[in-house]
Amino acid sequence: MDPEYYAPRTHEKMKDVLMNPEAKGPDIHYYMIRGGKERKNITLWQTGTVDHEYIKTYGHYHVGNLDETYWIIFGEGIALLQKRALDKKGQPLDDEIEDFKAIKVNAGDEIYMPAGYAHLLVNTGKTYFVTADNSPVEFLDSVSQGGNEASMPGHADYEAVKKMQGFAYYVIEKEGKPVLVKNPKYKKVPDVQLK
């Protein structure tokens, strides 16, 4: 594996999107290996929580009209998808969500991330959580599009998620089970149940 395709996501970076940014967590929350157009991307999550919030990916919207499919290889988790409302000029409103999905996933499942939806995955199991995905942008392409490393490729918009300190809901452990907790930074969020 070429080292430039390997991307660990550190606790320091994840503080941007945690429910409690001051809480202690593992040095690395998850590991990515970028495969690009010809090979799938592989992601592996640590187990555990950060002040009751399960380990998750950073989350992002795609730039342009890109969709993506994830295949769950090992473990169990929850996929979060959210779609922003639009203003009168058709521009997305970062703090208003018109659609939100929280879907439990297990090894063998496949989940489709439609264009226009931000997405992240959460490890709610007691083991590593491992996925493959077909994100269509090569690492070297992402550098030319403004990305500066494999962990923050140019085809993904992380800023809208960072601005809101994460998604519209956090997934936390309560009495041994995952529950959704609204992120108070959002003005408008649909009520959601875990599926």
Automatic annotation (TrEMBL):
InterPro entries referenced in this protein's UniProt entry, alphabetically: G6P_isomerase_prok, RmlC-like_jellyroll, RmlC_Cupin_sf
GO BP field: gluconeogenesis; glycolytic process
EC annotation from Swiss-Prot or TrEMBL: 5.3.1.9
The keyword Ribonucleoprotein belongs to this UniProt entry's keyword annotation: no
Cellular component terms per the entry's GO annotation: cytoplasm
Metabolic or biological pathway, per its Swiss-Prot or TrEMBL entry: Carbohydrate degradation; glycolysis; D-glyceraldehyde 3-phosphate and glycerone phosphate from D-glucose: step 2/4
Calcium found in the keyword field: no
Residues of the Glucose-6-phosphate isomerase prokaryote domain: 37-176
Catalytic activity annotation: alpha-D-glucose 6-phosphate = beta-D-fructose 6-phosphate
GO MF, any single term: glucose-6-phosphate isomerase activity
Keywords: Gluconeogenesis, Glycolysis
Family designation: Belongs to the archaeal-type GPI family.
Name used for this protein in its record: glucose-6-phosphate isomerase
